[in-house]
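User: Sequence in, structure out. Go.
Assistant: Echoing your sequence, followed by the structure tokens.
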Amino acid sequence: MKRILSACLQQTIQFQMKDESDRALAAKEIREEYEKYKRQMERKRTQYKIIEEAVQEDGSIIIKIKKQVPNYAIGDYLE
């Protein structure tokens, strides 16, 4: 019999706008969406660690993140 002792999900996520009408406004909205995503994980008590964050020329944000898989221990993945 096997049993999962700990689990972690590693993702690369890009936050971007659908249209590029106003770059300054789009960059602000992208940042707000990114902050909302982090608050949502904190509200759900999801453990996470942002490994890398890069702002692109078009204002989009690309992050590499490790986060807890729901209902599993995180183990030492975030250390």
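User: And one key feature?
Assistant: Helices lie at 23-43.
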